[in-house]
Amino acid sequence: MDDLSSRSDDPDKRMFFIPNRRPRSSPPDVRDNLRAFVASHDFRDLTAANYREWKNARFSVDTIRRTFGSWGNGLKEVGAAPPKKSIRVMSDHVLLAIFRDIWVYTYKRHEKSPSVIHVKEYAKAHPERSVSVTTLTRRFGPYKKFVEEFARYATGEIDYAALVKNCRPPKKVRQHVPLKVRFEILERDKRCITCGTAAELEIDHIIPVAKGGTSCKSNLCVRCRACNHGKGVR
Ligand SMILES: [Zn+2]
Questions:
Q1: Domains contained in the chain, number
Q2: CA of 61 relative to ligand 1 center, distance in Å
Q3: Distance 155 CA to ligand 1 centre (A)
Q4: CB–CB of 163/148 below 8 Å?
Q5: Which of the chain's ends, N or C, has fewer CB atoms near its CB within 10 Å?
Q6: 72 C-alpha to center of ligand 1: Å?
Q7: Which residues span the domain enclosing 212?
Q8: What is the pLDDT along the chain (234 residues), one digit of tens a residue?
Q9: Residue at which a domain ends, from 30, 46, 77
């Protein structure tokens, strides 16, 4: 809307009215709008060009670049950075420690050694830290044979070296937290749970993947880049 009071009655001067200032964009508003964009788009569609065409875009791409330094930084700031390149695996020790817990849990409930069903039952009861039968068989071979060998190991009949002598090297799997889940965690925590900042947020595993931590929501949190990377694998 023009500010009519600043317009002159003189037709020659009339066109020289003082233009309205556009309201200045505040970084939190830009962040919120970018967050909403991320939430409503597929990961591979998070381009500046798509933002320009997005019906709820409230800012220019230039404003977003100015606010965050670059389009990519903006995405990072709202937790939509590509998954971390680091590849983490569970060691045999960690896998076996979890399997021991599964065994104890199963025995206490059913007085049985754990079958495939019990491994799943444990995973349901302990969503933050568990293993799948697939992970176990990939590493230790056929499940039933592994259970027998584990019993021998647990009773002291064979030692650790004998238990793991035929196991295959861990397959390196990149941990990928789907964008939808990343966004939900971001909405839930909003800030770094360690230091409280709202900048450079990343999604982090509370129990590290290398320690058997899963990518379920209860094992995920928001941490800033500094807190996340300073922490390392505990
Ligand atoms: Zn932090």
A1: 3
A2: 27
A3: 45
A4: no
A5: N
A6: 20
A7: 179-231
A8: 445 555 667 777 777 777 776 666 788 889 999 999 988 887 777 888 889 999 999 999 999 988 888 888 898 888 776 544 445 577 888 899 999 999 999 999 999 999 999 999 999 999 888 999 988 998 898 999 999 999 999 999 999 888 888 777 766 665 678 888 888 999 999 999 999 998 888 899 998 888 888 888 999 999 998 888 875 444
A9: 77
